[in-house]
Amino acid sequence: MIAQLDAIHQDAQAAIEDACDEAALEEFRIRFLGKKGALTQAASGMRDVSKEDKPAVGQKLNEVRQALTRFVEARSAQLLALKDAEAAKGIDVTLPGRRPQQAAFHPLTQVMHRGISALRQMGFTLAAGPEVETEFHCFDALNTPEDHPARNEKDTFYFADGHLLRTHTSSVQVRTMETTKPPVRIIAPGSAYRRDEIDSTHLSVFSQMEGLYVAEDVSLGDLKGTLERLFRAIFGPKTPVRFRPHFFPFTEPSFEIDIKLQPKGQDPRWIEIAGCGMVDPNVFRQICESRGDDVYDPDKVTGFAFGLGLERLAMIMWGIPDIRLLIENDQRFLRQFASA
Q1: For residue range 176-221, what is the model confidence (pLDDT) as tens digits?
Q2: Using one digit for the tens of pLDDT, what is the confidence trace for 273-312?
Q3: Same domain membership, residue 218 and residue 78
Q4: Do both 64 and 129 map to the same domain?
Q5: CB of 221 within 8 A of CB of 205?
Q6: Which terminus of the chain, N or C, has less C-beta within 10 A?
Q7: Which domain CATH number covers 260?
Q8: What secondary structure does DSSP assign to 278-309, as a single string?
Q9: Which residues pair with 278 in a beta bridge?
């Protein structure tokens, strides 16, 4: 038996030199180490070896198996090295290298991160909600009357079962108040959907970031201070911010927010950037009715809410002339934000 194993070892040592490619090496492995290979056949004869000789024969069998395995591994490494050397023959190492492209966040992501970072420093936390919503969470709970234009099928995407694609992330505020007692201080970034004609300033799917703060004695001064700090964190510490009276169904009083910027080569001008206001008492009453308690009784708590479009912020920040550039994934356009 030992002589048979020595013969197999010698045959393998000679045969490995003829394995000049991967196919030949695989044939070698099958011939000696496969299920029907020479070594496997020899190992099956261990049952006929006497008890006294089994330790020596078993040790020899393991030694030969290990030796044949090393043959395969060494020859495989040699073939791989030859293959790499052949592939490298056409490489001119004197050519200049190619500089790797620098990765970057999408401009919308960069704007969102700036806003979230500033608001988190003021104690806000992130909240999320479904994009397929009910009319209650998207409109009724936000004091939006049935004849409001936003509820028309020409403006909102409705499903056959009455659900809809949310037109703003204010629905996240409603769901948060339904499940959380005050104080509440949240940021709700996410996608919103409206039946807008796509042009240089409008998309049917866009990104919003809304905020809500509800507690005892929240004031208009808290609202103004929060948003002034937010926009100065995004656009610079000396950015002028002003509030203009406006109307929204879900806030009273309500304001449009403008910031004063100087576009390149132009005179400074005021640019509308967001909407905000103190939460309308009717919104709190709807939340109390939905919850079945009075923790959001408008006589007990007050709050403010605000919302802004991330695409608009990005367009203002970098002077992007067409909103469609933000969704076309043109690497030539996006690459310029790698160092932003």
Answers
A1: 999 999 999 999 999 999 998 898 888 999 999 999 999 999 999 9
A2: 999 999 999 999 999 999 999 999 999 999 999 999 999 9
A3: no
A4: no
A5: no
A6: C
A7: 3.30.930.10
A8: EEPHHHHHHHHHHHTS-TT-TTT-EEEEEEEE
A9: 304
What tokens does 67 get?
């030796």
Residue 56 lies in a domain: yes
Per DSSP, the residues of 207-255 read: EEEEEEEEETT--HHHHHHHHHHHHHHHH-TT--EEEEEEEETTEEEEE
CA geometry: angle at 202 spanning 199 and 170, to 5°?
165
Query: Which pair of tokens denotes residue 122?
Result: 């003021």
User: Which is it for the CA torsion 257, 259, 260, 264, positive or negative?
Assistant: negative
State the pTM of this model: 0.69
Interacting residues of 112 by C-beta distance below 8 A, sequence separation 6+: 189, 207, 209, 310
